[in-house]
Predict the structure.
Amino acid sequence: MLGIGAGNPIRVQSMTTTDTMNTIATVEQSIRMIEAGCELVRITAPSINEAKNLELIRKELHARGYFTPLVADIHFTPNAAEWAARIVEKVRVNPGNYADKKKFENIDYSDAGYQAELDRIRDRFTPLVKICKEYGTAMRIGTNHGSLSDRILSRYGDTPLGMVESALEFLRICEDNNYFNIVLSMKSSNPQVMVQAYRLLISKMREENMNYPLHLGVTEAGEGEDGRIKSATGIGTLLEDGIGDTIRVSLTEDPEFEIPVAKMLVDRYTHRNTDQKPIPPVDSIAALPYSPFEYHRRTVKVVENIGEHQVPRVVADFSHKENITASTLFPVGYNYSVKLDKWNLSDQACDYIYTKNKILDFEIPGTLGIIVDANFLQENNVRERHYPFFNSYEQFLQSNFSKEINFIRLDIEELLSIKNSFSRDDLKNVVFVFESDNVHGMVEIRRMFIELMYDKNASDVPVIIKRNYTSLSNQELQIHASTDAGALLLDGFGDGVWINTDGKNSENTINALCFGILQASRTRISKTEYISCPSCGRTLFDLQDTTAKIRSRTDHLKGIKIGIMGCIVNGPGEMADADYGYVGTGPGKITLYKGQTVVKRNVPEERAVDALIELIRENGDWVELKSPSEVFE
Ligand code: SF4
């Protein structure tokens, strides 16, 4: 038996993408997942036939010596759930569609009408609860932001509260039947919504004396770097607070590739030991100065282009560079044409570079600021757009500071020692750089933000989040930094991000990572967003290949969200807030959406990507991709 929750390790799981009726393909893919470290294998059961076939899959796995628990994934089909619950260890139901069909209707329920609906759900759902109880089968009540029922949407809207209530309605039915073998999830493709929903779920469960294990995941996270950053931002934020008992990283890649990413996320907490530098003791907080259930950016003043309504800024750390020339800026989003003597900026051009002790003696791009150690800057002739970096508040007070921006490094010890002694006049042109090398760095920096918010003179000073990492591979850096900075940004903290490594990760990698974290936390959009499902046994086309094709034609469309979904059953709901949708409707057939509206039905697959581009053009969202020579014209 595999325990989830309580003192058990955080379990790693994934889902097959094969046709469930293809027993051998499903068994072999499950084995690849298990060998990679998957501790629960989820398999879709869209109808009773697939539910029955789970028995053959299970037998074959056992015959080959694999006893990993199986989970049947159910949408819309209670009869398949009831069958599967007699075969596999766990059944996942989606409360948004277990007993409801989506018609996208807004219904004005009276209390009696709403109760009548709950009674109908109780009648539909109770048989499954009884079977699970009888067979000792576990259940996940898995809410998805994109597939809330019309009933929930009508009463609670498209909100974290709606997601929570959707699960609680089913959970109460389980408890009324004395069935408690339950895990809950609150997934969304938007990490902000996902994090808020899990927190709210815990708060609501506490009110009702409930305490069930949680399965964490960001749905439709996409592929490659974007998918990893988005998953780490959502899942990592919650794991940092000790929330989460099992996780699934959903990538549009073969499921065995999800496992190392999930393990990397989990291992960080398994190996986080107590003999490293502990968090300095701080008084407990009577009340939070912000809501963890909704997003509000911390109110700050503007200092040059940092803070207030400005997008969070990206600082590239060039302190390890021996020489900085024009070409050093190429990997951080700047191109220079010698012929035209002109800089061109990409959408992911960093805003500042930290040189430590170098003054740039070439014509720098007009939007770029240079941060230099204050001592060095004062000893040299200060050039335009070079700003001092003070190593402490005390050093700043003893210096001639800049009339434009002064960056001041603070750690928690210094902040705690000087809080409530700041003067507003001194802080006029100040941006703090919060830094932590604590093993619980995210929590420590969050505490610094809280302390700052309570300080009447300093509460509106903009803050750059700075993290230092050593000896991390690019993938580890993605996971760690997305968690550490993403968790703060999701709560509205941070007016910039500064990631420093020991030189093992290229400037290009770190710069793309900073912009990826800002995009995942939805605080600065600099590229196209793809909301693509991981695919499963319902998928009717090659999702990975199609996603790659769509990405290659559209990845210059900054700010557009494109949903790429494997099936019509769940796809339209799951891509929730996409601007355009590409959804499989039958073998070789694709239906295209503008928002939630069907625009072109059953387009032959070979013409569907072109048709999607046409649709984007017709709606005025298309821009031509410039060739390298045009960039400078
Ligand atoms: S949207 Fe994708 S992952 Fe979800 S059920 Fe359909 S094919 Fe499977």
Notes: Residues 533-536, 538-539, 565-567, 569-571, 574 surround iron/sulfur cluster (CB under 6 Å). Residues 340 and 408 are 38 Å apart (CA to CA).
